[in-house]
């Protein structure tokens, strides 16, 4: 069996247009995925902070004010240890081109605003994001899921949240603003745009290429394979539910 892997998206943008299963469906869906890079505590902390700071303005701008679609959401993503960020919009009133233009305009405004965010406001956001990261497990199932996720992915980082929270606390506003700019608009930005809609293909985002054959597109790209860490010592100490006594495994 071939090892699982995640292709590295080329520089610039690639667009895949897909017809809906129901030809009569007038809705359209647009998902834009920006590939950030291989997983690390620092990158994960930066993306968690982005999740926290961008969540409300993204929804307020595109859903509430622009009425762009009835579903607007953004979130970080970890695909086989390759990190990314995705924005998804489902609309019955706007075309993929209009959605793409609105998303880009929002990102330009949001990114520019980070450099002028008051230091006190940035500090409050970091503290709130750290608190969310260190939130106690609500029950034993959540605690078990955290541990089994580390085992299933061969990472065994049982204090991941604590380590990422420590990284997050050290991120300066300048570093964060630079990271966000590089992800979305930097010279090395990498994005994949998926449009699900009926009708003729529309104009592509500037600089993007159309993906007509997925297999051919993927075959020419380098593939990142997740790394497996060695088993930790049998007596490794891991935290129990956060805030309670520690357990040994």
TrEMBL record:
Which residue numbers delimit the Coenzyme PQQ synthesis protein F-like C-terminal lobe domain? 49-147
- The domain of life is Eukaryota
> Per its UniProt record, what Gene3D superfamilies does this chain match?
Metalloenzyme, LuxS/M16 peptidase-like (3.30.830.10)
Q: Does the keyword Metal-binding apply?
A: yes
Q: Per its record, what are the GO molecular function terms? A: metal ion binding
Q: Which UniProt keywords apply?
A: Metal-binding
Region Disordered, residue ranges: 218-249
Asked whether the keyword Metal-binding is assigned, the reply is: yes
Q: Which InterPro entries match?
A: Metalloenz_LuxS/M16, Peptidase_M16, PqqF-like_C_4
One matching Pfam family is PqqF-like_C_4
In Swiss-Prot or TrEMBL terms, this protein is called: Coenzyme PQQ synthesis protein F-like C-terminal lobe domain-containing protein
Q: What species is this protein from?
A: Haptolina ericina
